[in-house]
Every structure is written in structure tokens, then in C-alpha cells.
Specification:
- The chain has 225 residues and is an all-alpha fold.
- The protein contains 12 helices and no strands.
- It is elongated, with a radius of gyration of 21 Å.
Length: 225
């Protein structure tokens, strides 16, 4: 996997700096929507934003860094909904693993769908490098990542699970969800728009969590004797 796109080189400390950043974001979106990905260069962004290329580079190392910041801004509203997301997820886990996984998968797919619909080809170029959970953690240092809270939630439903290593299972669940979404964006991005995509991904995750290997007829004795 490619390295994560770096954060802003410089944080805005004054309203003028924030206005410059907003101009860069708006110029980037305008170019993407009206001229397409091929015309999105740092020089052209600076031109449309009405700033010098030197000013742009004070804040961003390259257009990939601008892309990551655009994704963050487009998902900004989700940051104010983190408590709702956490409370809903935990409430589901208290009653139903199936409902929780369905909710969890739906939220992840919806996030990628919003970015793909807004950024189009550009998002297809950079989606592997964008990590929303990293961004959330920087904004909310006390916020647990999924792989940190999911193991205890799985343990709550241990009677119905086929997995025993909950930390490993949580990691694999995240890989299944994110890996499937990213691979689909690479090969057939329109597929994430289909309701069946969400349904089948939920089934895949639950199938893994519930799967209990059949006991060997010879127990744990050596095989091949």
C-alpha cells in the first residue's frame, strides 16, 4: 500500500491563512468539476485560486496533500456526528452483532461513495492513501480506532462467534471491509453504488465471524501417520 499522504505543512493560525486554504480547496474542486483530473496541477490550482505557487507550497507539499485535505473537508460534518456513530454502534452491539455490522459496513461504504461522487477520477487515484480514522484521531486524540474498541465488542457476543482471537478478528474485519471497498474502487467503482454490494459485504463479514471449523475426526493428533 502507498504511504499515507502527509498532513498540512502549515496550520492556519489567522483568518487570512484560513481564507487562503479555502481558496485552494475551492479552486481544486472547481478544476475537478469543470476541467477534470488531468488539469489538476499545483500551478493551475494556484492560478485559479489567485495566489502564487510559493504560497500554495507553504501549506501543501503536493496535490496529493491537497486531495487529502479536500477529503477531510468534505467529510467534516461527520466529525460532529462521531458521538452519534459511537452511541449507535455500541447500542447495536448490546443487542445484535448482525445489526451492528450492517450499520458499520453501511457507514464505511457511504463515506467512500460521497468522496467518489464528489471527486470522481481524482478520488480513484488517491483513495488508498486517504485514512479517515487517522484524521479523526488527530482531531479527537481520545477517540479509539475501530481495531481498539471492536475486540471487546466481539467478546460481548463470544457465544455466537467462531473466532477466539478478538484482536486479530477485529483487524481482519477492518481489512475485509476497507480492502474490499478499495479493491472495488480500483476495478469497478460503480459497483459500490449498488445496494447488493453492501448486503454481500455484510454477509462476508458475518460469515467470517460466525464460521466454526469442523472438528478433525482425529482430534489434535498428528496427521499423516
Amino acid at each position: 500500500m502507498a504511504a499515507r499522504t502527509p498532513a498540512l505543512r502549515r496550520n492556519p493560525t489567522q483568518s487570512r491563512a484560513e481564507m487562503t486554504l479555502q481558496s485552494i480547496r475551492e479552486a481544486s474542486l472547481k478544476i475537478l468539476e469543470k476541467e477534470g483530473y488531468k488539469r489538476l496541477t499545483t500551478n493551475h490550482i494556484a492560478e485559479v485560486a489567485g495566489i502564487s505557487i510559493g504560497t500554495l507550497y507553504q501549506y501543501y507539499a503536493d496535490k496529493q496533500a491537497i486531495a487529502a485535505d479536500l477529503c477531510n473537508q468534505l467529510l467534516w460534518s461527520e466529525l460532529s456526528e462521531l458521538n452519534r456513530f459511537d452511541q449507535t454502534t455500541l447500542a447495536h452491539f448490546e443487542t445484535s452483532l448482525e445489526c451492528t455490522m450492517a450499520f458499520f459496513v453501511r457507514e464505511h461504504i457511504a463515506r467512500h461513495k460521497r468522496l467518489y461522487q464528489k471527486l470522481k477520477t481524482f478520488y480513484l487515484e488517491i483513495h488508498w492513501q486517504y485514512d479517515f480514522e487517522d484524521y479523526m484521531r488527530r482531531k479527537h486524540p481520545r477517540k479509539l480506532k475501530t481495531v481498539e474498541w471492536l475486540p471487546s465488542a466481539l467478546a460481548h457476543h463470544s457465544r455466537n462467534l467462531g473466532v477466539n482471537n478478538y484482536s486479530l478478528a477485529a483487524t481482519l474485519v477492518m481489512h475485509m471491509i476497507e480492502g474490499t471497498i478499495h479493491a472495488t474502487l480500483d476495478r469497478d467503482p460503480e459497483l459500490i453504488m449498488h445496494p447488493e454490494f453492501e448486503t454481500e459485504l455484510v454477509h462476508a463479514v458475518l460469515g467470517y465471524l460466525h464460521f466454526k471449523p469442523a472438528a478433525s475426526p482425529h482430534g489434535d493428533h498428528e496427521q499423516g501417520e
